[in-house]
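Recap from last week: sequence in, structure out.
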Amino acid sequence: MFVLVVAHAGVIRGAPQERRDFLDRGILGVRPAYLRALARHRRTLRQKNALLRAGVEGRAAELEAWNERLAQDGADVTLARRLYVRELSEELAALAGTFLPPDEPVGLAMNDVIAREPELLAAAGQAEPEREAVAQALGRRMRAQASREAAFGQALVGPQRDELELTLAGRDIRRFASSGQQRNALLALKLAKVELFRRRRRETPVLLVDDVDTEIDRTRLLRFLEHVGGKAQALLTSSKRDLFGTPPRNSLFYRVEKGLLTGGETPC
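Predicted C-alpha cells:
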C-alpha cells in the first residue's frame, strides 16, 4: 500500500519551495531511487553553504571542489524534475477537460538552468540534454555568481532555486486566474498525480486530503470522488458534513469529537 498526500493550495499560491516539494514528493512516488539523488544534492548544498558562511577567502580550490560536486548532483535533480513535469503534463492534458473549459488548459514548465540556457535544448535537438551538459552549465553559472554567493553566504545557483511555473491558458495562474480557476487547476493537478502514480507503479494509492473544504466546493468534490472511485481509496477530512451531499456508494463517514473516533456508517 502506498499513501499519497495530494497537492494543497500552496502548490499554486505558496512559495516556490512548496512547488519544488510537490515535485520531489511526486517523483519519489514513481521513482523511489530519486531519494538518493535528492539526499546527495541536499548534503552537498549544506556543505557548500557552510563554507560560504565561514568565508571563502584563500579557499578557492575548496570552493571549486564543492561547486563541481554540487553541479553533478544538481544535474540529477534537474533532469528528474523535468521528466516528472513532462509526464505530469501529459496526464493533465488527458484530465483537464473533466474540470476545466477547453480554452483554459493548465500548463507546467520548469524555470531552471536548462530553460535559462536554450542552447542546451538546441544542442540536444529539443530533447532533454545530457547530464554532463547540464552539470557543465550549472558549473559555469556557479563560477559567474561566485562573488554574489560569497556576499550572501549561500548558494544562489542550482535546483534549490528553480521554480515550477503554472499557467492557465498561457497566463500566470497566480496573477491572472480567479480563485475558482485556481481550485479547478489544483484539482486537476491532484488527479494527474494520482493517474501518473497508477500508470508508473501499477498500484492504487491511498489518498489523504486534509481540510478538503478549504479547497473544493461541493460540485468539484463530487466530481473528484466520482473520478477517483474505483481507482483509489480516498481519506478526506472536513468540518462540514453537508459539503458531501450524496457521495459515491461504499463511502463511510467517521466523526472525531473530543479525541474520540466514532461512526463508520454509510451515507443515507
